[in-house]
UniProtKB/TrEMBL annotation:
Organism encoding this protein: Urochloa decumbens
F-box domain segment(s): 60-109
Coiled coil: none
Signal sequence coordinates: none
Domain of life of the organism encoding this protein: Eukaryota
Name this polypeptide is given: F-box domain-containing protein
Length: 495
């Protein structure tokens, strides 16, 4: 595995100066340059359709100089791995790259990469597998070591991590920028236990909720069974009716490095374009409740009363959150008073293993189900092996408050896992397979433990219900749990 991994690894932050590597980079940009200076560049780089690497002594400074605005137009069509490298070719290209980045003019949609770690690469290094180039890059991240952290989410180019004191940070793997989030003790359910010198030694986690949905049989005498066609097969399911009650349990005490195993589930970073800021949303225990924090906040804000949230999305100032039973709530966070609206009620009969909420490029709101199955543990009976067997895409009819199954996803692609759920156009990302879902694990067992268990990573055909491996052999390690990330050069506004 490691042999394969090393063969494809290139550092993104330093250009490979071997002539062949450098020339291959220039050649990828060449077709775009040809639109502006065809004759000059053809004479410079090749004869009769053949291209030859420059000699070691070739001066890049003698390359044809183009106006910076033209270079920026060309560079804005590149994905970030190529963009970072072209910025290292010469001073003129570097200047165009810096202007494009610093003025936030670079808006190109990125093809997600699979982010993972490798024991041989080092404790501070992450690897990025590019689906477009089918090659792996590695990046060194700031302290604390990434392999000592939990990864609880990625969105808009940012990782959300939890260190060994259960504190959270945002990290941009491309820029190396790291931002400390409000302390974990400012979450509604967490208190610190300090020693005589004021040092936090333990955390107290309260298990109270403002409201809990309790599902009990609709008939108190016996459980009613219903036969329902689900995921192209018939299943016998129990029908439950919800009731409400206030819940309170005695708090539990955890060591500073143990709280993250019980508290954190999934997190998201959403730009607030209208305010030039950002918001971080956290799904956390007890019972997968919601809290959020804006840039500059000193604490987390709790969003009661509902529980059992599984995924979030954000659009036009509204935070959309979906529960495991399919309820969709929209929180308006734009005003001084937070309001909540019910978009969709509980689904009947079916509760999938994982559920996602996605805003489609054409404007619809999607509810995506994922079903996994247990495999036999051939090596270690204590290690659970889960495999995705079915994925179903539903359009949310917000007027009728019902779901409409999408039988064909046409020329679009899903990315599912412990990251922000994405729906992308295959036309805009030609390296991706249309009508497919690219998935990684986001089962709680694997995001918080089972460090030696095989991860459920692959590509799923939404039409045939068949799955393929993303890459064989798979070079990634199992911990922290691999996830998708869309790279970004954007800097977050701190206020």
């Amino acid at each position: 595995m490691e042999t394969f991994c090393k063969a494809g690894i290139i550092s993104l932050r330093s250009l490979a100066i071997h002539p062949r590597n450098l020339f291959s980079l220039i050649f990828r940009v060449l077709p775009k340059l040809l639109c502006h200076c065809t004759g000059l560049l053809l004479k410079k780089f090749g004869e009769e359709g053949r291209v030859h690497p420059p000699s070691v002594g070739t001066s890049l400074g003698r390359m044809p100089e183009l106006p910076q605005d033209i270079l920026m137009d060309i560079f804005s069509t590149l994905e970030i791995p190529d963009l970072v490298r072209v910025g290292s070719v010469c001073s003129a290209w570097r200047s165009a790259y810096n202007t494009l980045r610093d003025n936030e003019q670079y808006k190109r949609s990125q093809t997600p990469c699979l982010l993972y770690t490798s024991e041989s690469a080092g404790e501070n290094v992450v690897c990025l597998y590019s689906l477009g180039e089918k090659r792996t890059y590695k990046l060194t991240l700031p302290e604390p070591p990434i392999r000592s952290r939990f990864l609880i989410g990625s969105s808009h180019g940012w990782l959300v991590t939890v260190d060994d004191r259960s504190e959270m940070h945002l990290v941009n793997p491309i820029t190396g920028e790291q931002i400390t989030l409000p302390s974990v003790i400012t979450i509604e359910h967490v208190n610190s236990i300090v020693d005589k010198s004021g040092v936090v030694r333990k955390y107290e986690l309260s298990y109270h909720t403002a409201r809990q949905m309790v599902y009990k049989p609709s008939d108190p005498e016996h459980v009613k069974l219903h036969v329902k066609p689900t995921f192209d097969k018939f299943e016998v399911v129990r029908k439950y009716e919800p009731t409400e009650r206030m819940v309170y349990y005695e708090p539990a005490v955890f060591a500073v490095d143990e709280l993250r195993e019980r508290l954190h589930y999934k997190a998201f970073v959403f730009p607030e374009t209208s305010k030039g800021s950002y918001i971080v949303v956290l799904i956390h225990n007890p019972l997968n409740q919601l809290s959020f924090a804006r840039a500059g906040d000193g604490k987390w804000t709790w969003l009661p009363p509902y529980t059992e949230y599984e995924d979030c999305s954000y659009k036009n100032g509204l935070l959309y959150a979906i529960t495991i039973v399919g309820e969709i709530h929209a929180f308006d966070l734009s005003g001084p008073v937070i309001t909540r609206k019910m978009i969709m009620g509980m689904m009947e009969d079916v509760i999938p293993d994982n559920i996602y909420i996605v805003h489609a490029p054409w404007g619809d709101l999607l509810n995506v189900w994922r079903v996994v199955d247990n495999e036999d543990a051939t090596v270690d009976p204590a290690v659970h092996l889960l495999s995705t067997i079915e994925i179903k895409v539903n359009k949310v009819d917000t007027t009728a408050k019902r779901l409409e199954e999408l039988k064909c996803f046409h020329d679009h692609v899903l990315f599912l896992g412990h990251n922000q759920s994405l729906c992308l156009s295959a036309k805009d990302h030609p390296h991706l397979k249309a009508n497919h879902a690219y998935f990684t694990d986001n089962n709680k067992l694997y995001t918080r433990g089972y460090k030696n268990g095989r991860r459920d990573i692959g590509v799923f055909n939404l039409e045939s219900n068949n799955r393929d491996k993303l890459l064989s052999p798979q070079p990634w390690s199992n911990w922290p749990t691999p996830m998708w990330i869309t790279l970004s050069l954007a800097k977050l506004k701190m206020k």
